[in-house]
Write a structure and sequence with these properties.
single chain; alpha+beta; Immunoglobulin-like; five-stranded antiparallel β-sheet; two-stranded antiparallel ribbon; 3 helices; 7 strands; 21% helix; 32% strand; Glyco_hydro_b; Trehalose synthase; Malt_amylase-like_C
Length: 130
């Protein structure tokens, strides 16, 4: 589970599960820390080959040192970020800036689950498999 091969296979699986990475819109977010790059990729039901809306939040630390960042995610208020690699659900997004701490050269990919949706069964199953 800790090998580069396992990690690469997991990244490919995530990419295949989320077509938004290839065809979704790209919106860069204002981050409170210049060492952190944050953006969303979104796809509407009409644009999706599967007919489903999808939104992913990507946050990357460009520094070799751990970095905190505050993100203005009010547009996604009520959404629940679910980390794509391990399926861990983070606290719901509210009105206040969303605070994250990233390890050196670390990153997060979050699927943004709308407030009226439950955790997707496929996502829950992949989290249990880890």
């Amino acid at each position: 589970p800790g090998s580069l091969l396992h990690w690469t296979r997991k990244m490919i699986e995530i990419r295949q599960r989320h077509p938004v990475f290839g065809v979704g819109s790209y919106v860069e977010l204002s981050a409170s820390n210049p060492s952190v790059l944050a953006f969303t990729r979104e796809i509407t039901e009409d644009e999706s080959p599967w007919g489903e809306m999808d939104a992913v939040l990507c946050v990357s630390n460009l520094s070799r040192f751990p970095q905190p960042v505050e993100l203005d995610l009010r547009r996604f208020e009520g959404y629940s970020p679910v980390e794509c690699m391990g399926g861990v659900q983070f606290p719901a997004i509210g009105e206040l800036p969303y605070l994250l701490t990233l390890p050196g050269h670390g990153f997060y990919w979050f699927q943004l689950i709308p407030p009226d949706d439950e955790l997707e069964p496929a996502l829950a199953a992949s989290a249990k498999a880890l």
